[in-house]
Write a structure and sequence with these properties.
The complex is a heterodimer. Chain A is built from 16 helices and 23 strands. By secondary structure, chain A is an alpha+beta fold. In chain A, strand 19 and strand 20 form a beta hairpin. In chain B, helix 6 runs antiparallel to helix 7 and helix 6 crosses helix 9. In chain B, strands 3-4-2-5 form a 4-stranded antiparallel beta sheet. Chain B has a two-stranded parallel ribbon with strand order 1-6. Chain B has 2 domains: 198 residues, Multidrug efflux transporter AcrB transmembrane fold, CATH 1.20.1640.10; 78 residues, Alpha-Beta Plaits (2-Layer Sandwich), CATH 3.30.70.3400. In chain B, a hairpin with a 1-residue loop joins strand 3 and strand 4. The chains are: A alpha+beta, B alpha+beta. Strand 22 of chain A pairs antiparallel with strand 5 of chain B.
Chain lengths: 604, 310
């Protein structure tokens, strides 16, 4: 009765072999590597670049172990961290600014393991060191910004149809157009209603005139918010690329938040500075008619805003926005070909280029201000004079004091303005040494606990204890294999969960062993006792594991970060323990005792 | 055969009902008092704020560090040693500043001006909104787990078992929380995960005993209910001690080798395991008796089969 059919042994055998294979990469450790990836995510890495990397390294006589294409990046395996830094410098100089070159660690497991997607466990930031940021997008500001855009668009539309209007005001995200007559208002309502289907218009007759108020329809609001979030994620991705991080994670979380994880980043202050920069860009005309005295005292003339200038003092700029940062496709630092001054070269997209051409044609000799708006405070980075009509969307700005400043401004422009301001609402930084320490601690917690449990089991239950211990070791193997296969993030609480599930998994074997002892005491033959022990304990094991599973699922569902890592391991551990403690241990018992027809004594 | 608990006779646990109920009630009330009077010492995860851990080459001079930090003008800075004399923990509350995320940069700059070798080990910054959300979702998780397990027990057994099992476990949770409040141990997200794991784990214990009770009800036809419960507890006693012992070995290993990060987590589990043994046997079972569990709840009367009308 204690025999398994052959297929069960085969199945268990296959499971163990597969588990072993996928656990294997974790034992090989990591080697230093340099990772090359394109700055713009739209660009692809190909074999031509691979050749370029190889020849650059050969030319500089940097010894490397292997060069491989992995996803959209190239990884160069190196012998030591000294060579790693040298290789990074060589490649950075050779490949230029289109590619980021980052230091990385890659698994040292042999290629045939990687080819079956057997990778080491994916370590969380608390184990490998790095920075985790949670950023929140200011959705109110995103909607207000959309409203400001509509203010401008209304003006253009009404002018092109020659519909006379008074002023266009904005309160929050509602835009109100004022008219002298009802006919004008109705004509405008028709016109605007047909052009802007995403807006809801409500006419109102007031004592001082007629108004038309436009608000975004709820579904259009969600769209604006989704767009703002997507745009910010793209911007963040570009900024992170500027930082040169090997495996960054940038993900949406909920409706208004973005998670940014930068493994291995050591200079957290710089990372925070670049990511947390909540700058938006606007190009507006300078109001040349404004009274300089009033401006210097901070009194804004009608229709103007007063902003601080980087060169000192205040300047008055028109409220109308010519262009926003969205229109800028590229920006690079350089020098003016005539004067040799530091300059920034900007490329605009098609629509931006057209607008820019019109505006510069009409305003030759006047000044145009580029505003950097950070945390609600606007600052004019520069306010150059328009010398001539600028077509083709290529703009050069001079007036920067140093090359460094030009490069800073270019980075800001290139990284793209954010659709709406963002704020860091959560930060978790773990230093590199701390990560290694945490791995050590987690590992030691597991190994000593495991040894203690195993010695107890073997002393107390002898052969059955040994079988239980082997089953427990197999449980650990299965769990690590599963975590490696799924590439689930392993955190320190996750390592604690491994220890905890191992401690709890032995429960199933204790239940079974106790039950067998009891059945023997009740007078059953050893074979019958083994059979009854496993059968009767099964219901209890299932019940008790399912209740823990409920806790695990709730934790996964509601938990964040470290807690979620804990929950994943807890749930997986329960699944593997049911298999190893019941099926695998039974197979071993059957192998040891099942064949003996006249078994009179078992070691339990 | 090595046996710790060779009980031949059934131990009359249920007759100790009054004493155990009194003990439970006292510890429970004590825990509730501690929670009410002292409150939990919530970590940065829940309150929001900044926590910075640094390591110094020489044993850290907290006075020098404090003076350096006071110059930054940041309010209510607390500086203390953490584990060893080389490790320093700095805490700052959120003070409604717009760029609270910059705080850690300012602190590190101030620290490096007095000691350039100082090494940043960890920064946790949690904004006020996020802290509140973590607190809310933590509380929600606790409720959800409690109800989920209760529903499971109700389906698998009977509502009396579900309520008894849950009350027994809530008793453990309140005692863990009470201990944390009384000793003002820091309550973090990891500790919360530990508490929830205890909730799931400690129900295991009740389930094992309940399973036995159900089995006995079907088997021991002549016995009274208290005797059936006593028998179930006595026979699972040895397993109870051994499994909890094994889990405790693992937890102790975490306690000693897991460092500060897992220290309080292991502590919560230890209290949970200790009280789990006690509560599932000596709290849940008497409650079951009190709710009036009967043989009929498990042995269904034979249903009369109705003939199909042709």
């Amino acid at each position: 009765m204690n025999r398994f059919p052959l297929w069960k042994y085969v199945l268990i055998g296959i499971t163990l072999v597969v588990a072993f294979l996928y656990t294997l990469p974790n034992f090989f450790g990591e080697v230093p590597a340099v990772q090359v990836s394109p700055v713009r995510t739209s660009e692809k890495v190909d074999t031509a670049l691979l050749g370029q990397v190889e020849s650059a390294l050969k030319a500089a006589q940097v010894a490397y172990n292997a060069v491989e294409l992995a996803g959209n990046s190239i990884k160069v395996r190196l012998a030591s961290t000294d060579v790693q830094i040298k290789a990074k410098d060589v490649l950075q100089n050779n490949l230029g600014e289109r590619y980021t070159v980052a230091l990385n660690l890659v698994s040292a497991s042999p290629p045939w393991l990687s080819s079956i997607h057997a990778l080491p466990m994916y370590l969380g930031l608390d184990l490998r060191g790095g920075v985790h940021f949670l950023l929140e997008v200011d959705m109110k500001a995103a909607l207000e910004k959309a409203a400001i855009r509509y203010q401008n668009d209304f003006r253009t539309e009404l002018r092109s149809d020659k519909i006379r209007y008074g002023r266009i005001s904005r309160a929050g995200n509602a835009v109100t157009v004022h008219f002298a007559t009802r006919d004008q208002r109705d004509a405008a309502a028709n016109k605007l209603g047909s052009v802007f289907a995403e807006l809801a218009f409500s006419p109102e007759d007031q004592a001082e005139g007629f108004t038309l108020t436009a608000r975004l329809k709820p579904e259009a609001q969600t769209k604006v918010q989704e767009f703002a979030l997507q745009q910010n994620i793209t911007t963040l991705r570009n900024r992170v690329n500027e930082l040169g991080v090997a495996e960054p994670v940038i993900q949406q979380q909920g409706a208004s938040r973005v998670v940014v994880q930068l493994p291995g980043v050591q200079d957290t202050a710089k990372a925070k500075d670049i990511l947390g920069r909540t700058a938006t860009l606007e190009i507006r005309m300078v109001d040349e008619q404004a009274d300089p005295l009033a401006v210097s005292q901070g009194q804004a003339p009608f229709g103007d805003d007063i902003v601080a200038s980087r060169e000192g003092g205040n300047i008055a700029v028109k409220k109308d926005v010519v262009l926003t940062g969205d229109s800028i496709t590229d920006a690079s630092p350089g020098f003016d070909s005539q004067s040799g001054q530091a300059a920034v070269h900007i490329n605009l997209d098609g629509k931006g280029a057209r607008i820019f051409k019109d505006v510069t044609r009409e305003n030759v000799g006047k000044r145009m201000a580029i505003l950097l708006i950070e945390k609600g405070r606007a600052e004019a980075i520069t306010a150059p004079v328009i010398r001539e009509e600028i077509g083709g969307g290529r703009v050069q700005i001079t007036g920067m004091e140093t090359a460094q400043e030009a490069s800073d401004v270019a980075l800001l422009l290139r990284a793209g303005a954010l659709a709406a301001p963002m704020q860091i609402v959560e930060e978790r930084t773990v230093g590199p040494s701390m990560g290694a320490e945490n791995i050590d601690k987690g590992f030691h917690s597991n190994i000593w606990g495991f040894l203690a449990v195993v010695s107890f089991m073997v002393i107390y239950y002898r052969v059955f204890g040994l079988i239980s211990s082997v089953a427990l070791a197999i449980n650990a193997l299965l769990l690590i294999a599963l975590l490696s296969m799924m590439q689930a993030t392993l955190t320190l609480p996750g390592m604690a969960a491994i220890a905890l599930t191992l401690g709890m998994a032995i429960d199933a074997n204790v239940l079974i062993n106790e039950r067998i002892r009891e059945e023997i005491r009740a007078g059953l033959t050893p074979q019958a006792a083994i059979h009854a022990g496993y059968e009767r304990a099964w219901a209890t094991i299932l019940d008790s594991n399912l209740t823990t599973m409920i806790a695990g699922i709730a934790l996964f569902w509601l938990g964040s970060g470290p807690v979620r890592g804990f929950a994943v391991v807890l749930c997986l551990g329960i699944l593997t323990s049911m298999f190893s403690a019941v099926t695998v241990s039974r197979a071993m018992v059957n192998l040891v005792y099942g064949r003996q027809a006249r078994l009179t004594k078992i070691s339990i | 055969m090595l046996e710790f608990f060779p009980f031949k006779k059934t131990i009359p646990f249920m007759s100790w009902g009054k004493a155990t109920t009194a003990i439970s009630l006292l510890t429970f009330l004590f825990a509730v008092w501690a929670l009410w009077d002292r409150g939990l010492n919530l970590g940065v995860d829940f309150t929001g704020g900044t926590l910075i851990e640094v390591r110094t080459d020489q044993p850290a001079d907290l006075h020098v560090i404090r003076t350096a930090l006071e110059k930054t003008g940041l309010p209510e800075i607390s500086v203390q040693n953490f584990g060893t004399s080389h490790d320093v923990l700095i805490r700052l509350p959120n003070k409604g500043e717009a760029n609270a995320a910059e705080t850690s940069n300012r602190v590190m700059a101030a620290l490096q001006s007095v000691d350039a070798t100082i090494e940043l080990k960890r920064v946790d910054f949690v904004g006020p909104q996020v802290g509140k959300e973590l607190y809310d979702s933590g509380a929600l998780a606790l409720l959800l787990v409690a109800f989920g397990i209760m529903a499971y027990l109700a389906i698998r057994f009977e509502w009396r078992f579900a309520v008894a099992g849950m009350l027994g476990n809530m008793h453990d949770i309140v005692i863990i929380l009470g201990m944390f409040a009384f000793f003002q141990w820091e309550f973090t997200l990891t500790v919360l995960a530990g508490v929830l794991a205890v909730l799931g784990y400690s129900v295991n214990e009740s389930v094992v005993v309940f399973d036995r009770i159900r089995e006995n009800i079907r088997k021991m036809r002549g016995a009274t209910i208290p005797h059936i419960i006593d028998d179930a507890i006595t026979r699972t006693m040895s397993r109870t001690i051994i499994t909890h012992g094994s889990t405790q070995l693992m937890v102790l290993s975490m306690f000693f080798f897991g460092g500060e990060a897992l220290h309080n987590f292991a502590l919560a589990l230890t209290i949970g395991i200790m009280f789990g043994i006690y509560s599932s046997n000596l709290v849940a079972s008497p409650l079951l008796l009190m709710f009036g569990v009967k043989r009929e709840h498990f042995i269904k009367p034979v249903e009369k089969k109705e003939e199909a009308v042709v």
